[in-house]
Design brief:
The chain has 412 residues and is α+β, with helices and mostly antiparallel strands. It has 18 helices and 13 strands. Among the domains are: 96 residues, no CATH class; 124 residues. Bound molecules: zinc ion. The site of zinc ion has 7 residues, from loops.
Length: 412
């Protein structure tokens, strides 16, 4: 097969386009391919699609294409320009590339596939593209995916906050719990952050939301109540977040008691922090004996821990009524414990009880869609060096958005 025909096939071009020249330079492992249009070819105006004759040619452009074996491969063309009676002189679109791209479509698709497997730095090393070029491809892929995204309100959503970098900067994420996708990412965790998601939809569309998992975070609650019809029955506070309130209360009790004991020369609580934070069955085998002894000792920390462990049973109820009854007796115990961190945590839960009980109807948590959290964790690791929020957001959409990212030739 002639090399010009071979490259026409590899590039996927057809009449009126043809390969005019192929130049192989084995010393620098590089192949250059020139494309031109056949004599007398007519194109349609890029604006109105009316057929128009070739008027002149733009200056030569170069696109990087997929490598040919070990050779970097580049496509060259001076694209024809049409002169349309209505729209004037317009450049014809190259069928092998997206407008304004320096890569062929097939090369861009390869970059997208590689970006799915490793971070931007890894991609630059594998493909020899620059940092800016690689980010450019990712950002464009995300923009493309978002513009193609079907307008749709998920039935069950989860609202999650993620810290960015080391500071106290946050992003709010809206997830579709059924599809396991991130639907929306926005700066901050304020009421207006979340409202900006809801405001994309009409009240009628929003009424299709059946349940919303979220932390007991006032701005999110306010946003949902302001925008989602019958939010009060739909909000479900995340059970893991609720449990964490009590777990950190246990830790506060431990810190206070440890200090007091140390003063008396009693070191029993030393090095036990993580034993109390774990669920009992997750205490490592080699510390089991030590833990059994200490949890049975007459310590405030062990009492606080027992209260925390008892709360876990709350979530195992099948019926709202029974769960509520159990909660009330737990609450009585916790508030009579004479340990103020525990009392404060119990009161927080009581204040939010109505939407802790909705769990028994909707059975959702922010961890409901398996996999999405681990994916976001991975993105966070990849993004740990990002100072750029736009990059962070794009990375989340890229990996977790369930978007259609590939460039496609326009269908006439
Ligand atoms: Zn035109």
């Amino acid at each position: 097969m002639e090399d010009t025909r071979l490259y026409a096939m590899l590039l996927g071009i057809d009449f009126p386009w043809r390969i005019s020249k192929v130049q192989v330079d084995m010393a620098s492992e590089r192949i250059d391919v020139w494309v031109e249009e056949a004599a007398g070819a007519r194109f349609s105006c890029a604006v109105c699609q009316q057929a128009a004759p070739v008027y002149d040619h733009a200056s030569e452009q170069v696109w990087r294409h997929l490598d040919t074996c070990q050779c970097r491969t580049y496509v060259h063309a001076g694209l024809p320009r049409t002169n349309c009676p209505t729209d004037g002189v317009k450049q014809v679109r190259a069928p092998w590339a997206e407008p304004r791209s320096q890569f062929t479509r097939k090369f861009e698709m390869r970059l997208i596939d590689t970006l799915k497997e490793c971070d931007v730095t890894g991609v630059t090393r594998l493909s020899g593209t620059s940092w800016d070029e690689t980010w450019g491809v990712m950002m464009k892929a995300v923009a493309r995916g978002l513009s193609r995204k079907e307008r749709r309100v998920p039935e069950r959503i989860g609202i999650d906050e993620k810290s960015v970098g080391k500071g106290h900067d946050y992003e709010s994420l809206v997830c579709d719990l059924d599809r396991g996708t991130v639907e929306y990412v926005v700066d901050d965790r304020k009421q207006e952050s979340l409202e900006s998601y809801f405001r994309q939809f009409t009240a009628e569309e929003l009424s299709q939301i059946k349940a919303i998992a979220m932390d007991m975070w006032e701005p999110y609650i306010q946003a949902a109540q302001a925008c989602v019809p019958e939010a009060a029955e739909k909000i479900v506070f995340d059970r893991f977040h609720a449990t964490r309130q009590v777990t950190s209360a246990v830790d506060k009790v431990r810190r206070g008691e440890h200090k007091a004991l140390e003063k008396r020369g009693d070191h029993r609580l030393k090095g036990t922090k993580y034993l109390w934070l774990r669920n009992e069955e997750n205490v490592p085998e080699w510390r089991r004996e030590e833990f059994v002894a200490i949890k049975n000792a007459n310590l405030k920390t062990s009492r606080a821990w027992a209260i925390k462990e008892a709360l876990r049973d709350f979530w195992s109820y099948s019926y709202t009524r029974c769960a509520e009854k159990y909660f009330n007796s737990w609450y009585f115990w916790a508030t009579h414990s004479r340990m103020s961190p525990i009392i404060v945590a119990a009161k927080t839960l009581k204040r939010h009880l109505a939407n802790l009980l909705t769990y028994f109807k909707h059975r959702i948590t922010n961890a409901t869609s398996e996999g999405i959290n681990s994916k976001i964790q991975m993105v966070k690791l990849m993004a740990c060096g990002y100072r750029n929020r736009e990059h962070y957001r794009a990375t989340i959409y890229f990996h977790c958005g369930g978007l259609d990212l590939y460039p496609r030739p326009e269908t006439p």
